[in-house]
């Protein structure tokens, strides 16, 4: 049985009375959906609506899990900003969710994830002593540690160099296999590599985009990955694709 439900969202979001976007989107359970679109179009807002967070506007519509159960407590979220607590060590930041819930965190698992994101030597450091890319990897480890059936990732690899980015994509794909993942990204190559569903958002519509027929996680240099990446980039730049 797939324990990671899909999500459907349908409605309209307004900011100060103006329509920011109309959305009618099915996010399939147990698969990766990559959400792309121009800056400011409302990608993060879709995540925040489903998470019940402040958006600065009002959403009129419905969203629900496909299994009919509440989404409360089932979504892991990695925001664009890392939201690391400056007074805690990297290790304690990874474990913070469990501690706040009054659960004893598995420090061994936290350390293993920090090793896998390349921060084994930095577990006792405070976030302020890390580079931007290291902070982003600490935030990724914290999100993976939460082990939720649904995971929202908002530009999770944006601060990473190309090699580390490929490594972290592979790690996330492995750890989050069979989870429902909604990944916001500006990188067509990332979407072409990771997605089971690609969704492109504009002010007019939210539409699905053809994904390569091959199995994700795809080879970066496979012809179908490169073709998808190139067509997507052309479309996002305003071409006709
Ligand atoms: N708290 C808020 N109050 C008022 N307006 C907001 C708030 N949050 C977002 N907005 C506005 O909503 C719009 C969509 O923002 P959102 O962050 O969802 O865009 P995005 O597509 O994720 O952009 P980017 O790719 O740059 O991250 C923007 O015009 C933004 O200014």
From TrEMBL:
Entry superkingdom: Bacteria
Entry's EC annotation: 3.6.3.-
Domain ABC transporter, residue spans: 1-228
Pfam families reported for this sequence: ABC_tran
Keyword field: ATP-binding, Hydrolase, Nucleotide-binding, Transport
GO molecular function, one term: ATP binding
SMART domains, per database record: AAA (SM00382)
Family named by the database record: Belongs to the ABC transporter superfamily.
Identification of the protein by name: Aliphatic sulfonates import ATP-binding protein SsuB
Species assigned in the record: Pelagimonas varians
Lineage, top ranks: Bacteria, Pseudomonadati, Pseudomonadota, Alphaproteobacteria, Rhodobacterales
Gene this chain is encoded by: ssuB_4
